[in-house]
Request: fold
Amino acid sequence: QFNLVESGGGLVQPGDSLMLSCVASGLPLNAYAAAWFRQAPGKEREGVICISSSGSSTVFADSVKGRFTISKNNAESTVFLQMNDLKPEDTAVYLCAIGNRCYENRFQYGWWGQGTQVTVSS
Reply:
């Protein structure tokens, strides 16, 4: 049984940092790519960043370059999203997704978590 559970979201102020976690039960992260997507109200789901099975990362969203990083712990089947210098436009539900490779197209991912809300507001 595969299951993805995100955590770590919350309400923060502009300029703050936040780390999200995604526990991928039943999915060996050394064999799959893991990505973070986000969806703001009324907007399309957007690819943010991805880490391959071998550990190389790809940033999909130009707006997060230099601020967001992705990492993982294969032994604990956990993927992390470190978000620094958060901006109001980063407000969204952040979802973890697992797929065979790092694709920006969300339809390439077969497993999804329920998401965790991140709100950036003063």
The longest strand covers residues 18-25. The chain has a mean pLDDT of 96. The CA atoms of residues 42 and 92 lie 10 Å apart. The radius of gyration is 13 Å.
